[in-house]
Amino acid sequence: MNGFKKIEVESDAVNVVHALNSFESDLSMEGTIFDEIRLLKNELQVAQWKKIPRSSNNKVAHQLAKEAVKFGGIKFWKEIGPPM
Length: 84
What we know:
Layout: E1 6-11, H1 14-21, H2 31-41, E2 46-51, H3 54-71
């Protein structure tokens, strides 16, 4: 696998974080997606799924939305996020 070797994913969705950190197969509609993500995780050196407060996530989502409107098109940040 080329590209990223270490990732950290933050989410305010506790059920998603729990599912991704679990070793058990998920029988929900999204279960096959979680299973696939867990398989891909094995190809990475480090992959962390973290629960963050919704208030923190709202700030990031809002800032990303503002940046998307400002730049239009595709924008990619590596190692650091957009200016706050």
